[in-house]
Amino acid sequence: MVLSVTPQGGPLPNPIKVVGMGSAGIDYLAQVASYPKPDEKLRTECLEAQGGGNCGNALTAAARLGLSPWIVTKIGDDSLGDGIISEFQRDGVVTDCILRAPGAPSPFTYIIVDREGATRTCIHTPGEVFNPSELTLELINNALNDAALVYFDGRLTEAAVLLAKAARSRGIPVLAEGERLRPGLEDLLQEADYVVTSAHFPSNWTGEECQGNAIIKTFARLPKVKWMITTLGKNGSILLERRADNTGTTGESNSIKEGVAEDVFKNLFAEVEEKRSPRKEKTLRGCTSADGTEIFAGGVATTTTAIRLLLKQGISEKDSDVVASNAAAAAAAAAANADTGNSAAYASQLAPFQPPEAIVTVSQAAHLPDDAVLDTTGAGDAFIGSVLYCIATGKSPQHAQRLGAVVAARKCTALGARPGLPFRNDLAAALL
């Protein structure tokens, strides 16, 4: 059975201020039929210039869902910077906390969108560094006053850690993103109440090749975190949630159920897939794209109660292998940032492992035809914008998984990170 969309348009009854600190820039998107081979020449099918940057994209998604986002970032005083600000203002993102660097260019990214392979390749040129000294008390107060939540995309880490500490001192919850290894990110993650990671971040951070082992090792290293979501692209997402007392336990330690994390995740996804039949589970039509493509919310399965999550034996890496794997990932991240002489700053420290106890929820990606996917640029940012919305409005992380999947899928039906982002009145009321 298919449930029809009941739109719920208009702003939230009371505007909710959220703050994001991180990247904002311009994306130059070149869509090609297939990715070029070395020395090959080919023509673009489409070329567009749009606002970009993880933080900027996520806040734009949140604004379209009805929040009142403020962005803290630094751009140049050039015409690109003027365009960045204008686009934010059109979408309702407050720009009062954007710094302008005199005589400096704004950040920009060349993005090659491969239509045939449904991939995108990004070549980024950063702007001026956001120095911690520029995060003045006046700027902090302006940003944090009346804020319900602060989000960090993992960039500008030195200054970001200061703002995160200021937020925590005021009782404002912190959401941090672990997309890829960056200097100072480990310190920022330790300040977070909530974390969202990319699919590959846990393996790169912990040095564990097995995804299940990597996810629970990441969660175990973040004891302050109430919950953590790892996004898996077209394979959905995995949520680990501690109990309200922040211990993850459900009673006596020796009575809690145990399970190998990799097997728990696999079994839950199998349970969701088994329920996909329309005869067994109703399907929610989440939204419709601009070209009329219907997007359906995916299914969800959960352990309901907390379980102790164990490493998969025989797959967990030796300490020496973990260190070597993390060092290789750190070197690759440093090279990608044109920072090859500083790879040690991207590496993480080997940490003792205590099996975490958590409620586990898996959520499928939203369902849409394969040929409806034009560009995946910014899909993770769209998901995080939905997470911002759900935290700020008091909804559960499970709700965020489902809404985030639909918003991310809708984004993928258009070229670029922002044109495909839905507005409130595009979405089913059940998702809001």
Keywords for this entry:
432 residues, alpha/beta, UDP-N-acetylmuramoyl-L-alanine:D-glutamate ligase, twelve-stranded mixed beta sheet, four-stranded mixed beta sheet, 11 helices, disordered N terminus
Give the name of the CATH superfamily. Ribokinase
- Which runs of at least 5 residues are low in confidence (pLDDT < 50)? 1-9, 246-252
Proportion of helical residues:
25-40%
Order of helices and strands: EEEEHEHEEEHEHEHEHHEEEHEEEEHEHH
In CATH, the topology is named UDP-N-acetylmuramoyl-L-alanine:D-glutamate ligase
Beta content comes to 15-25%
- Radius of gyration, Cα only, in angstroms? 21 Å
CATH class: Alpha Beta
Characterize the biggest β-sheet.
12 strands, mixed
Provide a count of the helices.
11
Could you give the count of β-strands? 19
Distance between the termini: 21 Å
Structural commentary:
There is one protein chain. This protein has 432 residues and is α/β, with parallel strands linked by helices. The chain has one domain (2-431): Ribokinase (UDP-N-acetylmuramoyl-L-alanine:D-glutamate ligase), CATH 3.40.1190.20. Helix content is 29%, strand content 23%. The strands form three sheets. Strands 2, 5, 6, 9, 10, 11, 12, 13, 14, 17, 18 and 19 form a twelve-stranded mixed β-sheet that branches. Strand 15 (283-288) and strand 16 (294-296) form a beta hairpin. Helix 1 (54-64) crosses helix 10 (379-392), helix 7 crosses helix 8 and helix 10 runs antiparallel to helix 11 (397-411). The protein is globular, with a radius of gyration of 21 Å.
